Amino acid sequence: MEFATFAERAAAIEAESADTEIVAAVADLFAVAGEDLGTVARFVQGRVFPAHESRTLDIGPRLCYEAIARAAGRNVDADAVERRLADRGEIGAVAASYDFGGQQGLGAFAGGGPDGVTVAEVADRLAELAAADGDGSQATKVDTLFGLFNRCSPQEARFLARLVLEEMRIGVGEGTVRDATAAAFDVPVEAVERALQVSNDCGRVAVVAREQGESGLDGIALAVGRPVKAMLAQAGTVTDALADWDRAAVEWKYDGARVQVHYDGADVRLFSRNMEDVTDPLPEVVETIETALDRPAILDGEVVAVDDDGDPLPFQEVLRRFRRKHDVARAREAVAVRFHAFDCLHVDGEDLLDTPLEQRRERLDGLVPADSDVVSAYWQTDDPDRIAEIERAALDAGHEGIMLKDPESTYTPGKRGKNWRKRKPDVETLDCVVTGAEWGEGRRANVLGTFELSVRSDEGYATVGNVATGVTDAELESLTERIEPLVTAEDGQSVTVSPEVVFEVGYEEIQPSTTYESGYALRFPRFLAVRDDTGPAGADSLSRVERLAASQ
Ligand code: AMP
Questions:
Q1: Which residues does residue 250 pair with via DSSP β-bridges, in sequence order?
Q2: For the domain bounded by 232-423, which CATH number is listed?
Q3: 279-296 pLDDT, tens digit each
C-alpha cells in the first residue's frame, strides 16, 4: 500500500466523529491493506512495533523537528519548526505546512507514484532507525527521517510526523482496532479480544483473522518471552467483596513495582508493567527464579525493595533499580529487591488465563518449592475478622495493605475489573469506649478476643459494633490484662465491662442498623490502637456517628 493511500484514509478517519463510522472506515482500510495489514493495524493507532516488544523508536521531538527542518529547505531550522508548532499546536499540521521534495513530484498529486513512499518502506526505515545505536546514531536517525520526509506530500508528512512521535490522534484506539478487525473479517469480537489479550499484537491478530478466521484466533496462545498486559485492580471494600462472593481470596498488597516473569526452561526474562524488559537491572530476581523454577512458566508478581533486615522500603527505591542501566552491581549492593509471585499464567505449555484464581494459586504452589520464599501469602475466608487480622499483619510487616480477589475469577490481561479489589484506606477513625468483651475459643480461651464498642450518648453509652483484636497472642494478653479487672458481669463467654478504656477503630462505612443501640453499625471495624491519652469523656459521641453516616 502506498503511504499516500494510508495518509488519505487516516485523514478521512480523523474527519469522522461517530464511533461506528470510525470503526467502519478502519475496517475498510483493513480490507484493502493487502500484505501491509499487520503494519497498517499498528500505524492506524500510532504504533510502529507490536505492543509486547520492548523496541522503541527513541526519537525525541527535537530530532523530528530537525528532520522536518532539513526537508523543508535551507532557510528553515529546528527552532523555526518549534516556533511553528507553538503556533499551530500539533506536529502533523506543522509538517504539512512545509513544501517538501515530495510535493514537487507528480506522485504527490496523484497520491503516490513512481517515487512514492510505501507503507512497507516506512515500516522498514523506522525499524532501521530503532536499531541505530551508539555514537552517531542520532545523526543517522535524522538522516533516515529526512530521507522519508523529503519524499512526502503534505498529507503524508502530516501522518508520518505524528507516527514518528507516536501521537496519531485520529480517534483510533485498541477498542476501535478490535471492532474493525471483527467487522472486516467477519469474526466474533470476543475471539479478537481474546487473541489480542494473549498476543498483544494487533497486527498479527488482524492477519490471522483474515487468513484463518475464528479458529485461527482461538489457536493463538501465550508465548514464554512475550509479555501480556497485567490484570489490574479497582478500589473496593471488604463488605462489598464478601457480599459479592462466597469467600474472598486475601493477599498482602506489596508496595513495589509489577513484574512479569518469563522462564523458558533456560533463560529468565523480566518485564515491567509497561512491558519494558527489566531483566538486566534485576539480577537477583533472575537468580531467584533460576533457583526456584524447573519448568517453563509465566508468573505475575511484585518486586519490592528491602533493607538489610528484609523489611520493605518505599516503592521509589524499586523504580530507581528499574531505571539503572550501568553499575547494576553497585545499585544492588545499595538496595536489594525481592520478588513476590502472586499469580501464574502459564506452566509448561499450558495457558492458565481461563483457569480460576484458586487453581492458578495451587499451580503456583506446586511449581515453586515452599521454602523458596517466592510465592506470596494467600488466604481464603468469608470472615471479616480474619481479613482484619490479615490486614493488620500486612501493615505491621510494612506492606501497603491487602488485595481482595474473587477466587473463581479468570485472569483478564489489561482489565481493571471488580475481580481484583484493593481495599481503600479508611478515611476516618472513631474513638469508641469498650463496654463489653468475649472470651476467645480453643487455644485462646484464656484471653479476651472480641470487644463491644460504644459511643457516648444522652443515656450514657450506645453500642455501634464489635471488634476483634490482636494478631499475636502477646497483644491479646496485654489487652486482657488491661480489661479483665474492669469486668462487672459475666454471661457465658460474654462479659460486661466498666466503660473506661477507649479504642481507636477504623471502619469502611457506617450503616443504619437495628442490631446495636445507637441505631448504627460500623462495617468492617478494625482495632487500631488503645487511646491511652484519653478516657471515656474524650470518646466520640453518637451525634458524630450520625454526622459521619449522613456525610458518606
Ligand atoms: P494500584 O497501583 O494502587 O492500582 O494497585 C494495583 C497494583 O498493586 C498492582 O498493579 C500491583 O503492582 C500491586 N500489587 C501488590 N500486591 C499485589 C497483589 N497481591 N495482587 C495484585 N497486585 C498487587
A1: 379, 404
A2: 3.30.470.30
A3: 999 999 999 999 999 999
